[in-house]
Design brief:
Radius of gyration: 21 Å
Number of helices: 8
Number of strands: 10
Oligomer: single chain
CATH superfamily of the largest domain: Tetrapyrrole methylase, C-terminal domain
Largest sheet: 5 strands, parallel
CATH architecture of the largest domain: 2-Layer Sandwich
Strand order of the largest sheet: 3-2-4-1-5
Bound molecules: S-adenosylmethionine
Length: 251
């Protein structure tokens, strides 16, 4: 079997939301790199007793990848844990590229993202026929900035379900922009440290998003889901409609 370094999404916090694949990898790894600011210790506790656990919050890309390469070349099983799903705001690609240059094989194992858990807590379906069939996952610009073609204004024009990551510090301008397109009473799910022991979610209205964020002193680890599909009367779908024939219910 080809040896690889696995990049693993471990979900937003609750260990019960790990995939079985992620759990097996954690249980058998010799060296575990983990984003300690966003992953609870409970998840790391599934690891082997003598395994080496390396917190990445204070390390640079160069440091992380040089230790990874060193341990891998010593014959160790190396894994890298990212919160949520690695494909979202994970800074994963830059790590994969360095490892590729060293001819080290890699794999990415998906995880549950924060927006999915916040939606599930409110039993929200974010794609309801005739209301919206689209979910936009985005963020306020901040220090990273946004490509010009993806300004919140342009995205909000769709009036779809819209999830804001990494945006609590920029909620004033985000709310102002969103209110140009969505009605003030549009429902917003706010989730803070969703699925952690001290986490919570709340259902508010768009017009109160800034006030609520300031009152709760939200700065980080907060997800917002703005959606016209939350708390609406859903038209029934075609999928389970007796008059609608499809491959699995044709006759
Ligand atoms: C660096 S990004 C990583 C996102 C992650 N890859 C994912 O799929 O959820 C961190 C941001 O994700 C969101 N986030 C991650 N975990 C969260 C949680 N447990 N509760 C609320 N928001 C969370 C917040 O917006 C946070 O600022």
């Amino acid at each position: 079997m080809v040896r690889k370094i696995s990049f693993i999404g471990v979900g937003p916090g609750d260990p019960d939301l790990l995939t079985i694949k992620a759990l097996k990898k954690i249980e058998s790894a010799d060296v575990i790199f983990w984003a300690d600011s966003l992953i609870p210790e409970k998840i790391i506790n599934f690891s082997l007793k003598g395994s080496e656990k390396i917190k990445t919050s204070t390390l640079t890309l160069e440091k992380i990848t040089s230790i990874m390469i060193e341990r891998f070349n010593e014959g160790k099983t190396v894994i890298r844990l990212h919160d949520g799903d690695p494909c979202l705001y994970g800074a994963v690609k830059e790590q994969l590229e360095i490892l590729r240059q060293e001819n080290i094989e890699t794999e990415v194992i998906p995880g549950v993202s924060a927006f999915q858990v916040a939606a599930a807590y409110h039993q929200a379906e974010l794609t309801i026929p005739d209301i919206t069939q689209t979910i936009i996952l985005t963020r306020a610009g901040g220090r990273t900035g946004m490509p010009e073609k993806e300004s919140l204004k342009d995205l909000a024009k769709h009036k779809s379900s819209l999830c804001l990551y990494l945006s609590a510090r920029h909620i004033k301008s985000s709310q102002k922009t969103l209110l140009e397109f969505y009605p003030p009473e549009t429902k917003v799910i706010v989730g803070y440290r969703v699925s952690w022991d001290d986490g919570w979610t709340s259902l508010i209205e768009l017009k109160d998003m800034e006030k609520f964020t300031l009152e709760k002193e939200l700065i980080r680890t907060t997800i917002y889901i703005v959606s016209p599909a939350i708390n609406t009367i859903a038209n029934r779908s075609n999928l389970y409609n007796p008059s609608y024939k499809h491959l699995f219910r044709g006759k």
